[in-house]
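User: Can you recover a sequence for this backbone? Please restate the input before giving your answer.

Assistant: Of course. Working from this structure:
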């Protein structure tokens, strides 16, 4: 697929998601990418949540800026934009092997009026927005100055800062040191907002020094080292392309270092070939105050800003935000979380014991008005069928208990905010599922007692706020083999989480509506109407079991999904063990009971078989990244 087409489809997809109700929250929720408060930086009157931004040129039409603002960036640089559209007669080319992007039309844009329309329809962006200003190629000094002044006037009420693209006028005889200074001075007098020079790193020191000196003397705030390096286009003689990516990184870093020497108090934004966190740290070490991403977002994915934020945070002295301290109620919150998990495991073990032996409890028999032997006399398979539902529920409860205990010990104990959020979301869904079967007139005493005992523990586990973003681990700096394997492992666990959640929702819906699927009735060798004729209270009991299992599965699935989305970090071995240990009771009970009772319909069990296969592959892929000892 041509790069322009691929970019358009990607940006339109995430842009559309951001525009639907709740879309921005979904994007933020999926990635959990909001930067830690410790990373905020100030430039004049503007505060940036993080020194990591998105550079101009990636979304020139501003299709997805609302979505991109949720990716963990501290600012967005839009553009380049000129007064009138600049049409490209070239192409964008990707060099995947070298991880480069080649632009033959470096100032292509749809003009100021198109940008204004897009910005008007992009409400809700909470991070600073800058715009890279450009003029038509080969314009005179006066025309260029007037055009950029007009652009500033139209955009000043929307933007937090401006950058001035110099590429259209580089190398022209008219643009001497004096001309550049006059140009910058006029623009400086036009606005009080921060004004930065945007200059490509491929300029020689002799070419760059007059422009830097002019910008400094005119009172500009600093510069953006961006735009790529100039290379000759091998496909067309006497034409040049701007290349950004791995090939431009070394030269861009060198240019940043040289610029810092020439202009010590300048605000410098480094850009070019930031493909992994180490590249960003290299820019900062060379003297940059901020970094911008471009090709890295294409080749390393939308998680790169978050990874860079984590790397920057991990290299800073440990300073956790102040916590709201509340007096412990008998035990700290994390202990209550562990007790909640242990309670779930004990409850699950008791449910498993009953389901594997008597199947029904005395209050079940009282509600039905029939003993277990009488049920078996009516239908030889009915107790086995009820056992298969109840064993599956028990295994899910044990799995949830393992997840909660691990989240409490490794997360709440260290006041990690994302672990508290997972406990809140999963637990709220799990406890709410009790309302799914209230309308059937059947009261499950064991379920009610367990809920009454565990719910206060759930509330006490959430009593203390948690605002710590990360544990202190050596930062993940490189896109190495372990990281690439872990991406696939993470994806597979996300699929499992979505699958469990979806399966739980479907089972819950079946439980409160038709109760049975066709393979159930084949196993029972009876129709639903016949079961109803046996005992009109029998189906409500089965429906209760199904609804309870479905609700527990949703709770379990959400916990697995959110752990997979938010918790995969190098060296977090407890995440691997949590997913591994939680999967064992769920899969063993869910699949094993089917073989025990003889309910082995292949189509019915196919999703479980697929889930087990994905589970095992995901564990193998994640183990080196999560469990390998970090030197």
């Amino acid at each position: 697929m041509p790069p322009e087409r691929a970019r358009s489809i990607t940006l339109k997809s995430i842009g559309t998601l951001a525009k639907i109700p709740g879309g921005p929250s979904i994007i933020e929720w999926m990635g959990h990418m909001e930067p830690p408060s410790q990373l905020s930086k100030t430039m004049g009157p503007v505060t940036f949540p993080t020194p990591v931004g998105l550079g101009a040129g990636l979304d020139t039409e501003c299709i997805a800026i609302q979505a991109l603002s949720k990716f963990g960036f501290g600012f967005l640089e839009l553009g380049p934009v000129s007064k009138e559209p600049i049409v490209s007669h070239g192409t964008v080319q990707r060099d995947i092997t070298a991880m480069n992007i080649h632009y033959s039309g470096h100032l292509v844009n749809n003009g100021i009026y198109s940008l204004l329309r897009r910005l008007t329809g992009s409400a809700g962006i909470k991070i600073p927005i800058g715009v890279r200003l450009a003029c038509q190629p080969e314009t005179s000094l006066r025309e260029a100055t007037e055009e950029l002044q007009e652009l500033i006037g139209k955009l000043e009420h929307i933007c937090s800062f401006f950058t001035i693209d110099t590429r259209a006028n580089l190398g022209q005889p008219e643009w001497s040191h004096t001309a550049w200074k006059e140009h910058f001075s006029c623009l400086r007098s036009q606005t009080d907002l921060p004004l930065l020079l945007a200059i490509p790193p491929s300029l020689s020191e002799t070419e760059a020094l007059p422009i830097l000196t002019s910008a400094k003397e005119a009172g500009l705030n600093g510069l953006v080292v961006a735009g790529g390096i100039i290379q000759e286009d091998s496909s067309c003689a006497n034409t040049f392309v701007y290349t950004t990516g791995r090939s431009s990184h070394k030269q861009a870093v060198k240019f940043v270092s040289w610029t810092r020497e020439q202009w010590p108090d300048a605000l410098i934004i480094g850009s070019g070939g930031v493909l992994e966190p180490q590249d960003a740290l290299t820019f900062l070490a060379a003297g940059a105050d901020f970094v911008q991403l471009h090709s890295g977002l294409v080749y390393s994915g939308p998680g790169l800003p978050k990874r860079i934020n984590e790397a920057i945070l991990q290299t800073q002295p440990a300073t956790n935000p102040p916590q709201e301290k509340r007096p412990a109620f008998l035990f700290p919150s994390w202990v209550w979380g562990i007790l909640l998990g242990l309670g779930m495991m004990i409850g699950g073990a008791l449910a498993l014991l009953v389901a594997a032996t008597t199947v029904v409890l005395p209050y079940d028999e009282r509600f039905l008005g029939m003993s277990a032997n009488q049920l078996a006399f009516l239908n030889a398979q009915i107790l086995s069928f009820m056992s298969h539902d109840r064993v599956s529920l028990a295994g899910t409860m044990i799995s949830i208990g393992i997840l909660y205990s691990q989240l409490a010990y490794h997360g709440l104990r260290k006041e990690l905010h994302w672990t508290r959020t997972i406990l809140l979301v999963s637990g709220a869904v799990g406890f709410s599922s009790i309302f799914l079967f209230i309308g059937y007139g059947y009261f499950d005493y064991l379920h009610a007692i367990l809920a009454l005992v565990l719910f206060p523990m759930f509330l006490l586990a959430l009593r203390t706020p948690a605002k710590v973003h990360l544990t202190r681990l050596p930062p993940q700096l490189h896109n190495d083999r372990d990281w690439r394997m872990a991406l696939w492992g993470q994806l597979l666990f996300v699929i499992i989480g979505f699958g469990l959640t979806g399966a739980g929702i479907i089972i819950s819906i079946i439980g409160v509506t038709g109760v049975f699927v066709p393979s159930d009735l084949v196993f029972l060798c009876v129709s639903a109407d016949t079961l109803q004729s046996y005992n009109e209270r029998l189906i409500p009991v089965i429906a209760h079991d199904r609804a309870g299992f479905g609700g527990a599965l949703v709770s379990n699935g959400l916990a697995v999904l959110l752990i997979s989305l938010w918790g995969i970090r190098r060296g977090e071995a407890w995440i691997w063990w949590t997913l591994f240990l939680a999967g064992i009771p769920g899969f063993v009970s869910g699949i094993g009971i089917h073989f025990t009772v003889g309910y082995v319909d292949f189509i019915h069990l196919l999703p479980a078989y697929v889930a087990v296969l994905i589970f095992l592959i995901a564990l193998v892929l994640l183990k080196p990244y999560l469990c390998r000892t970090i030197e």
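That completes the design. The chain has a mean pLDDT of 90.
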